[in-house]
Amino acid sequence: MGNADVFEGNRAEQEALLDDYFQNWKVFIDTCSLVKPAAAKFFAYARPYIEKYGNPVIIPLRVIDELKKLEQKKSSPEDDEARSLAKEWLEERLPRLQRDNIIVIHGEDVDNLGHADNVFITQFTRHRMKHQILLVTQDKNLAKDIMNLNSMNSVERGKRVEAKRIDGGGNLCIHDDLRGLWQAEKVSSAIHGGDRQRWNKMKSGRKSPTERKNETAADAFCIKTEVTTLPDRPLPIRHVPQENETVYRVQDGRATPMRLGAKVGSGGEGVIYETDEGYVAKIYQKGSLTSLRREKIKRMLSRNISCKGICWPVAELRNEQDEFVGYMMPKAQGKELGRSVFIKQLMQQYFPGWKKIDLVQLCLTILEKIHYLHHRNIIMGDINPANILVVSPQEVYLVDTDSYQIEDFPCPVGTPVYTAPEIQGKPFRQFLRTMGNENFAVATLLFMIMLPGKTPYAQQDGGEISENIKNGNFSYPCGENSNKKTPDGPWRFIWSHLPRKAMKDPLYQTFRKGESHYSEKTRLGAGDWIQKLREYHRLLKEGILQQNDPASGEIYPTSYKKNPNVTYVTCVLCGEEVDEEKTKDGACGKCRSKVYKTVRCKDCGRAFDITEGDRLWFQGQGWDLPVRCQDCREAKRNAEPDFTKTRRTTMRVDVKPSKGVDDIFPKGASRMSSMAQRPKKSSPTSAAPSTNKDTTDDDSGNLGCVGFLLGVAVGVLQLFLECCINLVGFLLGVAVVIALIKWFL
Fold first, then answer.
1. DSSP letter string over 74-141?
2. Is 358 helix (H, G, I), strand (E, B) or coil?
3. Cα(314)–Cα(323) distance, rounded to whole angstroms?
4. How would you write 710-735 as a 3-class SS string?
5. How far apart are CA 620 and CA 102, in angstroms?
6. Among the listed residues 1, 10, 2, the one whose alpha carbon sits nearest the alpha carbon of residue 202
7. Full domain range(s) for residue 210
8. Are 455 and 481 members of one domain?
9. Reading across the β-sheet that carries 172-173, which strands appear in turn?
10. Alpha-carbon distances of 80 from 33, 67, 76, 444, rounded to whole Å
11. What is the CATH number of the domain that holds 268?
12. What is the pLDDT of residue 470?
């Protein structure tokens, strides 16, 4: 095995190589590599990086056609293995990989011309202006043709293309016969400086991926401490190009004409136009064309900044008078983060079916790009959700990169919510941000994605966000630490479901004054957050967090995270699961305190509230709701009359009871008296809901009133019986008189 095979067969170096290819390159594979037995191992090694960056391997339709022909080919016995593999790929492997988004089958009209080799050369020549491209092929002649594209004068300004083969272990390696070509490419710094640096690093094989990650990139900008003193004067522009007009793309000192297409967007500084080269053009408005802006764009173009999703300038644009008017950049797409993910209704509309794991993956995708920039001493400065476009959790675009801070050119704008406490209120044009300032903005962005749209320093009693930031007044709890001002709504629920070590602790320590990561120099960087978010992603992917509480996998949980040592019941009012010990009458404390209705007191006329807790208690007692306030109910109860005396006075008649009445109702022991003297049912204590028995017109909950009504009924009955007895006595007397008269007669 050659030296290249030894180097590239090293597992750690292969991991670094795959990470680079699937983050920054488009990867194609040829028929001859697919039917190699080790191809399955290659896809197994590549799968984590394909999933990480959402960058599947591309298989042209012509390759599929060649596999079908190979499957049906009747040839010598030594081709049986290739034919068998072709059949296996067509029937099993390709459908499975396509379903898992590990591969994508791609075809264009020009693909119908000739064999797959012609397709690769045609498509690579066409698309390398926009992408770095790798071809995995066992065909050394095709590989040589692909590598030679790098030195063709007609495509010299394009991005790099490479060709490698799969060895017996499923690793990518250089063709033995092409090492000389690779060596020549290695020293061609005029065209491939960035790739030469990557090759030299991989060839040495002396440093681990972690060590390389911590190094400053070869194309990094210098670190400055003072703002540039270059003048910022308006440029004398004679004409600002518009739609369908010609501009000139300036690269490598040569100007190439191109036509501006349809307008796709506009802002305060300029207008974005389509082009026929796969890029878009930003043409500044006349008032935004200054000498300082022109010098900054030139400085940005002095480095090879190329990362998928970062819309970095790739060429200067001039008008027909050779005047600077703008720049060309990769085309972006997607929904603004602030107008999609940060608004619940819009997130559900644009990204239906998203779960918490999707938000975590979105954070990782954004962090990877920010880490790429920070690794090159580029500070975004204005981390603004309007400048982050989202297509999917794996596909994100960063736009308005011309405002980023590089060297002594500051970022002239900013958003207070994302501005660190130590630079709150400072004029952004007059100082250079530090990486510590930037790290505060990164943490804020992560917080606002995890708690969609909610700023870290929002709290119950309001207050200015900028003042809360300056004071480090963070309201979300961590363990026993809390200022008890966490905002109402779903935010406290979402916060409770975040994992403690991966998210709660580092966020609290960043935003709370005096904590370990609060100061400018101790804040966590993008690389630190990547590690923590990967752990969070793992906990969700493996279902560890959802085992205790399925709501931990939701973006908007409707209750606090469950404690495994607590018994939960469902609140009869809100339907949420709550701690059984914190309920009463089947309702949680939060629901019990809500006002059910407001009524006006029947006696004093003042308005008073009846809470849900009051309603449940009265219903539980079988009583109607009160119509008097608490004070009037107390006064009425204390002034309750002696119904016994009232009834004796009311029911007295001028008919003397006949003999025998006292035998029926003995004196001092009448039914009326006994009913009036019956003990009253005790009312709830003051700790319970307001419970005086003062209800509807005469407060039917009042036992004294019930006794009065019963006493009246008994009194009427007593009077009726007395009258009957008197009537019977009277009739008997009349009968006796009539009998005596008849006897005398």
1. ---GGGHHHHHHHHHIIIIIHHHHHHTTSEEEE--GGGGSS-HHHHHHHHHHHHTTT-EEEEE-S-HH
2. helix
3. 17
4. HHHHHHHHHHHHHHHHHHHHHHHHHH
5. 62
6. 10
7. 3-214
8. yes
9. 103-106, 57-60, 25-29, 132-136, 161-166, 172-173
10. 16, 13, 7, 59
11. 3.30.200
12. 92
d(CA 268, CA 280): 17
String of DSSP letters for 216-285: PPTTPPPP-SS-------B---S----TT-EEEEEETTEEEEEE---EEEE-SSEEEEE-TTSEEEEEE-
SS3 587: strand
Strands (DSSP E) found in 529-573: 568-570
User: How many CA atoms, within 13 angstroms, populate the side-chain half-sphere of residue 424?
Assistant: 16
353 and 378 inside one domain = yes
The pLDDT value given to residue 76: 57
Beta-carbon-side half-sphere exposure of residue 338 (alpha carbons within 13 Å): 10
Name the domain boundary from 289, 305, 331.
331
Residue 464: exposed, middle, or buried by beta-carbon count in 10 A (0-12, 13-18, 19+)? exposed
For residue 203 the two structure tokens come to 């060839």
Strands 172-173 and 161-166, sheet pairing: antiparallel
**Tokens standing for 574?**
């809100």
C-alpha to C-alpha distances, 141 to 74, 117, 148, 177, 321, nearest whole angstrom: 25, 10, 11, 9, 46
Note the Cα 100 to chain centre separation in Å. 24
Phi, psi of 578 (to 5 degrees): -135, 165
Last residue of a domain, one of 310, 331, 352: 331
Instruction: Give the Cα separation of 160 and 177 in Å (integer).
Output: 20
15: domain CATH number is 3.40.50.1010
The residue among 383, 504, 531 whose CA lies nearest residue 450 is 504
**CB neighbour class for 23 (10 Å; exposed up to 12, middle 13-18, buried from 19):** middle
Same domain, 508 and 648: no
Q: Do 363 and 320 share a structural domain?
A: no
User: Can you give the pLDDT at residue 693?
Assistant: 43
| Distance from C-alpha of 716 to C-alpha of 719, rounded to nearest angstrom | 5
Q: What's residue 186's pLDDT? A: 46
Cβ-contact 482, 492 below 8 angstroms: no
Strand 246-251 with 172-173, pairing: unpaired
User: Which residues have a Cβ under 8 Å from the Cβ of 554 and sit 6 or more positions away?
Assistant: 355, 356, 497
Q: What is the pLDDT of residue 340?
A: 96
Number of folded domains that form the chain: 4
pLDDT for 705 equals: 59
DSSP characters over 417-431: GGS-GGGTT--GGGS
Helix 435-450 with 526-541: angle, nearest 10 deg: 20
In a domain, 530, yes or no: yes
Per-block mean pLDDT, blocks of 10 residues, the chain (745 long): 40 83 92 88 90 90 86 66 82 89 75 60 75 89 82 58 88 75 45 42 44 58 93 93 94 87 89 91 94 95 92 94 95 95 96 96 96 95 93 96 96 93 94 96 97 91 84 87 80 93 95 94 95 95 91 91 81 81 84 90 91 88 90 84 48 44 42 43 43 45 61 77 79 81 75
